[in-house]
Structures are given as C-alpha cells and as structure tokens.
Design a protein that fits this description.
Elements lengths: L1 E6 L4 H14 L3 E9 L5 H7 L1 H15 L1 H10 L3 E7 L2 H9 L4 E8 L4 H6 L4 H7 L4 E5 L11 E6 L3 H13 L7 E8 L16 H21 L5 E6 L2 H11 L4 E6 L4 H7 L2 H6 L6 E5 L1
Parallel strand pairs: 1-2, 1-4, 2-3, 4-5, 6-7, 6-9, 7-8, 9-10
Antiparallel strand pairs: 5-10
Helix pairs in contact: 1-4, 2-3, 5-7, 8-9
C-alpha cells in the first residue's frame, strides 16, 4: 500500500487538504501528515533562551495545534503517521517527497496570484517546482462533499507534459467508480499572443481546428486505455477558460502538466499553472514530467 504525503500547517486550507486526502486514500493508501516548524524568527530570543528550549516550546505548541487534524484522521479510520520536523517548509516537504514511498502530495493552497504568492513566500509554488511527485492543491472554498472527484478536466496544450499529466490522472483515478474525463484545449488567438500558432489564422474555425489537432495526442492516450471521454476546444485566455469550464461542467479535478518553471520565471513568463491556481476553487492536480 502506497502513501500520500500531506503537508499541514494550521490553516483552513490544510484542513480541507486533509479531508480531500482522506476521501482519496480510503481503502487504498496510507497518509503521512507532515508538519514543518520554520526557524524561530527572533535570533535574540534564541540566544537568550537557547536553541533547545525554543525548539521544545515550538514542538509542544505544534503538537497541541495539530490535535484537530489527528481527530479528523482518526475518525475517518485511515492509517496514518505524523512527522514533525524543523526547517523551511518547502525544503522539508521536498526532502520527504524524494524517498520513493509516496504516490502524490496533497496540500492546501491560499490561491495567491503569482506576484503575491512570491512575495508572501507561498509554500505550494516552490513545492510544485522542486518535487517530482504529482501535487494536489486544495483551496479552502472547495466543497468537501465532492471529494475525491467524479469528473476530471485534463488541460491539453500539445506538450509532452500534458500527455504525461493525462496518463498520471488516469492512474491516480484508478479505483474511483464512475469517473469521466473531459479534455480541454484552449487556443489563444494570435492577435493576442503573436507567433505561437504560426501563420494561417483566418477565422474562428481555423483556431478550433488547431485546438482539435492539439487535443488529439491526449485523445489517443484515453483511447488506448479504452476510457470514454469528451473533448472541448475554447478560444481565449487559458487560465480563465480553464476555471470557467470547470465550473460550467461541474468538474471535480483539474489536471495540468507543469513545465517546471521556478517562481520568478513562472511569474515573468505568465505560467498557466500559476494563473490557474489563483482563485480556483476546484482541486488541482499538477504533474511535472
């Protein structure tokens, strides 16, 4: 039985992430709840009281605050273990993610925009960048009654990352009854984003044909697995179209292949992943190739 890594702090987003992980893991995975205690902010206090005294205080405080999480997990009856470590949260998470026993990471997200997330030192962004595991991101507003998921929206851009994401979504959905799939290709008109699709754009039909060609690779993945699916092509801004389609189609999980850009590079280049995280209430699955 594989494990799911669930980093937790004391936020409402983390509680929703734990609920999502429990619904997904039941009868097929065990959980590791991981809490990272960051370095104490005041060097003067550490010098006066001593490193050990400060860490003992932080550890006692963390154990007390984590009791609400343990109550939720124990009531669900899912096997789990609790790990508490000192260090920068994204570094602690990344270290655990490399030991080979985990199928995925489930964590809460505040849904910050790219610049705000960078300035406020979002933990989810560096985790997505550093960890090779698939990462589920869960917002506080997500409806816990819909966990784990019934309908999966797989975003398709013609890249190898999108194909890998489709394959991983199928694998992680194994055992969930009644799952359906929607492949979404979003075409940005060249007039708004010059040069991406080359010459030949004449009208909306041309753009739709490009979208259909783009989605074909992922259609072949589902056809090879004999899995029914629908395909949809939308013209517009990718992140906006993904969020709107997810709401219109009552999607329970959005899947994105990630190109692995860091926080600064992703911000400057306008990563669709970072844009989609912002204000998305639907659970996200981010897959790196």
């Amino acid at each position: 039985m594989s494990r799911i890594l669930v980093p937790v702090d004391f936020s409402a987003q983390s509680i929703q992430a734990v609920r999502f992980a429990l619904a997904y893991a039941k009868n097929k995975h065990e959980l590791t709840l991981l809490h990272a205690i960051p370095p104490f902010p005041s060097r003067n206090v550490v010098r006066k009281l001593g490193q050990q005294s400060v860490e003992d205080f932080q550890l006692d405080e963390a154990k007390e605050d984590l009791k609400k999480f343990l109550t939720i997990v124990e009531e669900a009856g899912v096997p789990y273990e609790l790990e508490i470590e000192f260090g920068e949260p994204h570094e602690v998470i990344s270290k655990h993610a490399t030991n080979g026993e985990y199928a995925a990471i489930v964590m809460g997200t505040h849904g910050y925009g790219r610049i705000t997330g960078f300035l406020l030192q979002s933990v989810s962004y560096p985790t997505i960048h550093d960890a090779q595991l698939p990462v589920f991101l869960i917002a506080e507003e997500t409806d816990a009654d819909s966990f784990p998921w019934q309908k999966v929206l797989i975003t398709v851009d013609g890249s190898e990352q999108a194909k890998n994401a489709a394959q991983k979504a199928i694998a992680l959905s194994e055992g969930i009854p009644g799952v359906s799939y929607l492949l979404l290709s979003v075409v940005t008109p060249p007039v708004a984003y010059a040069g991406v699709y080359g010459v030949g754009w004449e009208d909306t039909a041309t753009l739709e044909n490009w979208g259909k060609e783009t989605v074909r690779t992922c259609e072949e993945v589902l056809e090879a697995a004999q899995i029914p699916y629908e395909s949809k092509v939308v013209i517009g801004d990718p992140a906006t179209a993904i969020r709107q389609t997810a709401e219109e189609e009552n999607v329970g999980l959005i899947v994105l292949g990630h190109h692995g850009l860091g926080g600064i590079a992703g911000t400057l280049l306008g990563s669709v992943t970072f844009k989609t995280i912002h204000r998305t209430k639907t659970p996200l699955l981010i897959v790196k190739s």
